[in-house]
Amino acid sequence: MLDIKTGPKGDTIKVDSRWLRDHCRCSKCYNARTKQRLFNLVDMPKDLKAKDLKYTKDDSFLEITWHDGHVSEYQIDFIVSSQHDRFLEKLEKDTTRTLWDVPTIEKNKSQLYFKLGDLSTSDAMVKDLMGSLYRYGLVFITDVPATTTMTEMAVRRVFPLMKTLYGEMFTFAQDYLHDDITYSHDYIGPHTDHTYFCDGAGLQALHCVLHTGEGGENFFIDGLQVAKELRRRNPKAFDILSTVHVPAEFFDKEECHRFSSPTIRVDPVTNEIVQFRLNLYDRSVFDTIPQTEMCGFYESMREFLSIVHEPQHWWQLKMNPGTVVIFDNWRLLHGRCAYTGQRAMTGCFVQRTDFLSKARLAGIIE
């Protein structure tokens, strides 16, 4: 470990020598144009030692000469800002997401609606949509002609599409094109899609292009708000749902997908919730834990679902032709009431990595 001076008052931080050597930004170790490392860790000496440390440019830079003769130069600000404690400080100050219940989302729903014409002519409006989508987990695009083609055009204005077993764009009604409850008149409870995929879609877009009957209201629940409440009421239940892998599967004549993951996926570094995988319909044979642990799991799931179904978390609305909803499939639980008559929905999915990439380029997240 090296003591690195960080300011005029003589403050220091301890930094590992190997970390410093790994983060050398000289032209031999780093391609500044592509932002890619060239240094191979296997070439790092086992007995790595700093032979000489020299502070330059009013102590804002550090030059290290290593015992093998290699010279590295670092900005002090870069070293300081790259430390783990600074990373955690940024997370604690993060205000880019708003957890919501029904009163909160109703109060702020004016931030969720965007006209297709405005999005088509304004990059600033697209950025605003991205900001609202990341903050609340869903947005609506209005004035969209009720066709698959126009729905696709509206979504592509913001995101590239994800190809799945349904293709890039899909349309479903009550005809069973795939063996899935989606193709029915039935009530569909709160869930996330693609629990059986290794990498479920990050976003989903839906557009009701036809409905001649009654019912069919959609509802959305903020999983982050529900999980926060579960963590407060029953920390043990939260821990169980964030560690026990639940198997899921989808299969028909041409497809067979299986995957298992915790219901609540938590980042092991930040302890933040990063994804919900909840779909009671697509569960496979539950064989990932011993029978002696089943009681704890089922009790934890029951408590989680009871919070999900509390009225203050359940935002229900009628989706009519002309309005596309885009929502965060890793964050929100969604579902549908039973309906009568003819009803057709068209939509698509967006990969999580594409969603976050767009958000970073727009300056919404780092």
Structural notes for this entry:
The chain has 366 residues and is α+β, with helices and mostly antiparallel strands. It folds into 2 domains: 2-87, 2-Layer Sandwich (NE0471 N-terminal domain-like); 102-362, Double-stranded beta-helix. Helix content is 27%, strand content 28%. The protein has helices spanning 17-22, 76-81, 84-92, 102-108, 116-121, 123-136, 148-156, 223-233, 235-241, 294-308, 352-361, and strands at 2-5, 12-15, 30-31, 36-37, 50-56, 61-66, 71-75, 113-115, 138-142, 169-172, 188-191, 203-211, 218-222, 245-251, 256-262, 264-266, 273-276, 315-317, 324-328, 332-336, 343-350. Strands 8-9-19-12-21-10 form a 6-stranded mixed β-sheet. α9 crosses α10 (294-308). The radius of gyration is 25 Å and the shape is globular. Residues 10-77 form the Gamma-butyrobetaine hydroxylase-like N-terminal domain. Keywords: Carnitine biosynthesis, Dioxygenase, Iron, Metal-binding, Oxidoreductase. This is Trimethyllysine dioxygenase, mitochondrial. It catalyses: N(6),N(6),N(6)-trimethyl-L-lysine + 2-oxoglutarate + O2 = (3S)-3-hydroxy-N(6),N(6),N(6)-trimethyl-L-lysine + succinate + CO2.
